[in-house]
Design brief:
Layout lengths: L7 E4 L2 E4 L4 E3 L8 E2 L15 E3 L1 H11 L4 E3 L5 E4 L6 E7 L7 E7 L2 E5 L21 E6 L11 H14 L5 E4 L5 H11 L6 E3 L1 H12 L7 E3 L12 E4 L16 E5 L6 H6 L4 E3 L7 H11 L3 E7 L1 H10 L3 E4 L11
Parallel strand pairs: 3-4, 4-5, 5-6, 10-11, 11-18, 12-15, 12-16, 13-14, 13-15, 16-17, 18-19
Antiparallel strand pairs: 1-2, 2-3, 7-8, 8-9, 9-10
């Protein structure tokens, strides 16, 4: 008797969909790639053909040059492989970053959903996660331990605003990854009425412009280049995490160093990065959201792609849900 999902093959460098002759998020150049979202640990350059949402293709174009892209909108279904024995492929929102998608695969009466990275919190920069009932659910487990329970987003943004108001002669320098996290922090500030200019490191400008072109309201953003130090006093300054403690930051007005990441829950990480104001703001589901998602979707099997897979596999097994960990490589926490 055939195993459930035996037409899907996990390999170290990606997930191979045999009847479609296509790879999901391959880490090496492939002839046919289905890409969940634009982070570099999922979207690589060099593929002969790429199927992804229009937003993800735009991000890949910006990062790697023009792609041989085939846009697939949310809710749209295409068939890959032979007409009489192909796979129906759909893209539904994952709630991770702009354009992020779960890939829904239907073949011979079975449904597999490869979620990529996802979160369940509201985010003004991307479409919310859409649960899809399926036979096999391929899930991440970046924060797959019970200790990881993210606080309310509004509380973390309030901490940032309070520090800003309490230190009018300084700036708040926020380290946030260039794709997704930086734009989310800015958009969350705007949602809470912070309409003052926000200063940005040059490395963030290209993707902030792309987000704005796709309708995300980021307000007035000013590159820090050639801006007098005094002009940035009492303002938020955004930069990539790698710039928090380099020479670039020395020209800022006595910055209070902050970082927006789910990993700021781990105090040692904050200390290692000399972060004074840790902001626990993640673009991944926390433990409660991972387990609640599995209960909601109710798959027959769960495949865990990366992260803290042992704990999530154990949780599944104690609830009579068949589960396995996949040994994929190349997945880093660029996005958190």
């Amino acid at each position: 008797m055939a195993k459930l999902g035996d037409w899907i093959e996990p390999h170290p460098h990606g997930i191979y969909v045999k009847p479609a002759d296509a790879w999901i998020d391959p880490s090496i150049p492939s002839a046919r790639a289905l890409v969940t979202h634009g982070h570099a640990d999922h979207a690589r350059g060099g593929h002969a053909a790429v199927w992804a949402t229009p937003e993800t293709l735009a991000i890949m174009d910006a990062r790697y040059g023009e792609q041989a892209g085939h846009p697939v909108g949310y809710g749209e279904t295409i068939r890959l492989g032979p007409k009489d024995n192909g796979v129906d492929v759909g893209f539904v929102p994952a709630g991770h970053v702009l354009g992020s998608a779960q890939i829904v695969l239907d073949y011979r009466g079975e449904r597999v959903v490869v979620s990529g990275d996802y979160k369940r919190r509201a985010d003004p920069t991307c479409a919310p996660f859409e649960p899809v009932k399926c036979d096999v659910f391929v899930t991440e487990a970046t924060f797959g331990l019970p200790v990881f329970r993210h606080p309310e987003t509004g509380d973390e943004i309030d901490k940032l605003v309070a520090a800003l108001h309490a230190n009018p002669d300084r700036c708040i320098l926020v380290g946030a990854y260039a794709l997704g996290k930086a734009q989310r922090v800015i958009a969350e500030l705007r949602e809470r009425g912070h309409e003052a200019p926000i200063y940005i490191h040059g490395a963030l400008q290209r993707l902030c412009t792309l987000y704005a072109e796709h309708g995300v309201r980021l307000g007035e953003l000013i590159p820090t280049a050639d801006v007098p130090k005094a002009a940035m006093m009492g303002h938020v300054v955004m930069c990539p995490p790698g710039a928090l403690n380099d020479r670039w930051s020395r020209r800022l007005p006595d910055p209070i160093t902050a970082m927006a990441s789910g990993w700021m829950r781990v105090r040692q990480r904050a200390r290692q990065k000399n972060v004074e104001l840790p902001l626990i703001l993640s673009d991944h589901a926390d433990w409660d959201e991972l387990t609640a998602t599995l209960i909601e979707i109710a798959p027959k099997e769960v495949w865990v792609t990366h992260g803290r897979d042992d704990a999530l596999v154990h949780w599944c097994m104690t609830r009579q849900i068949k589960a396995r960990a996949l040994a994929l490589v190349g997945f880093e926490d660029e996005d958190d």
